From TrEMBL:
Similarity comment text for this entry: Belongs to the TRAFAC class translation factor GTPase superfamily. Classic translation factor GTPase family. IF-2 subfamily.
Residues that hold GTP according to the record: 88-95, 134-138, 188-191
Protein name: Translation initiation factor IF-2
Gene name, Swiss-Prot/TrEMBL: infB
Locations listed in the record: Cytoplasm
Annotated organism of origin: Fundicoccus culcitae
Domain Tr-type G: 79-248
Region G-domain, annotated ranges: 82-230
Length: 371
């Protein structure tokens, strides 16, 4: 059964462990004697020896989605910061807006003001935090939604007042609508003499984004990202929408969330920026992240400061994983190290098997193509 190692399985089938290891190698699975094996791998061995594995209905602990199920007791929920993505056409001012927010609203870290890029950060207005995803908006939507991770609560669509609605503006609207995420329109570059906010509003009306002044329910804010005009108003509007949305989370549980970005660092090993969605993430937590696992060894906040714990909607950068996960992967904290390791290894093995299957399929396809 699941979690057995090759030593144990070799006894069941009365075979040499080395023979089983060879068979697995031939099927493209690397395993050593003492490694806990996944259900799929054990089934593979059983089939090799002509044994039909019996069907078992068990909760698959390596399936990370189950830890995200929305069955939180209402009484345990408290309000949490909104997670905001900025989207819009190229050159309409997304980066300028993010930089403006970062430079004027984020308190510098103690590490001599070295603000490293961790893919997400928090801004405070009237003592209330707002989390911004600093990844290209489309990426945040497509990669993460493709993996079933909806992490954005509010979308800011930036439209340059001198340029109006452009193809990527429409794309952004469609993304946000498909994800059912409320939209706030930031009409940018209103400092320019040729700025024409009315035209932008007119154009957006055709896409169902109608300003309140015209009887609609879309919030429009006219800003200049470059000259820091009306940015506070934009932040206040975000809080207003967040309030309407009643965003909540349970901070008293084992943490779960999503990978914003990850990389392999020569000195530190795997480093991942995580967005905590439920629970509180703590130093030392046994954790499964995508197909990797480990213990949270270090944790930095968006200012590069070492922190010991992080609650819902907080972005953090962690180390301590055995491998780098991918943006959009889910993470789950486990009760104990052993369960985390087993789930992590199982996921890695499954990924290996999947990869092998894809390779096989590709080779067969090539074969047929060449016939
Ligand atoms: P992105 O492609 O959407 O990230 O756009 P950028 O932030 O890179 O901005 C594109 C150009 O527009 C840059 O040259 C910015 O300096 C300029 N820009 C951005 N916001 C403003 C603004 O509010 N007013 C003016 N005049 N220029 C702006
Ligand atoms: Mg940009």
């Amino acid at each position: 059964t699941e979690g057995m190692n090759i030593q144990e399985i070799s006894k069941i089938f009365h075979r040499d462990a080395s023979e089983i290891i060879k068979k697995l190698l031939l099927s493209g699975v690397m395993a050593n004697q003492n490694q806990a094996l996944s259900k799929e791998v054990i089934e593979l061995i059983a089939l090799e020896y002509g044994v039909e594995p019996e069907e078992k209905v068990v909760v698959d602990k390596a399936d990370l989605e189950i830890y995200f199920e929305d069955n939180e007791d209402e009484e345990l929920l408290t309000s949490r910061p909104p997670v905001v993505t900025i989207m819009g056409h190229v050159d309409h001012g997304k980066t300028t807006l993010l930089d403006q927010l970062r430079h004027t609203r984020v308190t510098e870290g103690e590490a001599g003001g070295i603000t490293q890029h961790i893919g997400a950060y928090q801004v405070e207005i009237e003592g209330k935090p707002i989390t911004f995803l600093d990844t290209p908006g489309h990426e945040a939507f497509t990669t993460m939604r493709a993996r079933g991770a909806d992490i954005t609560d509010i979308t800011i669509i930036v439209v340059a007042a001198n340029d109006g609605v452009m193809p990527q503006t429409i794309e952004a609207i469609n993304h946000a609508k498909a994800a059912n995420v409320p939209i706030i329109v930031a009409i940018n570059k209103v400092d320019l003499p040729e700025a024409n906010p009315d035209r932008v509003m007119q154009e957006l009306s055709e896409y169902g984004l109608i300003p309140e002044a015209w009887g609609g329910d879309t919030i429009f804010v006219q800003i200049s990202a470059k000259y820091n005009q009306n940015i506070d108003e934009l932040l206040e509007m975000i809080l207003l929408v967040a309030e309407v949305e009643e965003l909540t989370a349970n901070s008293n549980r084992l943490a779960v969330g999503t990978v914003i970005e990850a990389r392999l660092d020569k000195a530190q090993g795997a480093t991942a920026t995580l967005l905590v969605q439920q629970g509180t993430l703590r130093i030392g937590d046994p954790i499964v992240v995508g197909n990797s696992y480990g213990k949270v060894r270090t944790m930095l906040n968006d200012n590069g400061r070492r922190i010991r714990s992080a609650g819902p909607a907080t972005p953090v950068e962690i180390t301590g994983l055995n491998d780098a996960p991918q943006a959009g992967d889910l993470f789950v904290v486990f009760e104990d190290e052993k369960s985390a390791r087993m789930a992590g290894e199982e996921r890695a093995q499954r990924a290996q098997l999947e990869q092998r299957d894809t390779k096989k399929k590709v080779t067969l396809d090539n074969l047929f193509e060449s016939l």
